[in-house]
Amino acid sequence: MTEALESISKLVSESLGIDLGTILIQLIGILIMFLIVKKYLWAPITENIEKRREYVEKQITEAEDNNKKAASYKDKYEQRLKDAKGERRDIISKARIDAKLEGERIIEKSKAEALLETKKAQDVIEKEKEIAKQELQKDTLDIAFSIAQKIVEKEVSKEDNKDIVNDFLKEVDNHAS
Fold first, then answer.
1. pLDDT tens-digit profile of 15-54?
2. What is the mean pLDDT of residues 81-86?
3. Which domain holds residue 34?
């Protein structure tokens, strides 16, 4: 069997120009190099790859959480915006109603004040009329007494009596106007 191997080895090396001893040494060198790499380099590289994978997963998870939070904030914002629009409509509606009621109140107050002023003016007119009436009565009495005194002082003829009455009527007209 060794002879067969040697003959195969000779045949391969002569026909291909490959020496099996060299290949075997190279395989042993590669195996030693593989073991060294595995022992000293593979663990740190694998550890770094694992850390990187964890970091990327963490970043993805945080990004997903942030997206969920952002969506939640967006929903809350949109709801608040809808609520604010509803509140705005309610406030405007209430303001219109309040303004209408205030306008009606002002009109009613103005009407009441105008009515009060009218009543006061009528009262003043009535008082003035009463005062004028009293003054007219006083003046009439004064004139009547004056006429009566003149009549008593002299005996009056029919003609004088007419003149006195006419004078009286003229004085009444003058005082009335």
1. 666 667 777 898 999 999 988 888 888 888 888 999 999 9
2. 87
3. 2-176
Query: Tell me, what amino acid is at 140?
Result: T
The string over 7-25, giving b where at least 16 C-beta atoms fall within 10 Å of a residue's C-beta and e elsewhere, is eeeeeeeeeeeeeeeeeee
Q: How many domains does the chain have?
A: 1
Give the residue among 120, 110, 167, 162 at the shortest CA–CA distance from 143: 167
**Residue with the larger pLDDT of the pair 117 and 8:** 117
pTM (2 decimals)?
0.38
Distance separating alpha carbons of residues 134 and 171, to the nearest angstrom: 16
How far apart are the C-alpha atoms of 24 and 37, rounded to whole Å?
20
Between helix 2-16 and helix 20-36 the angle, nearest 10°, is 90
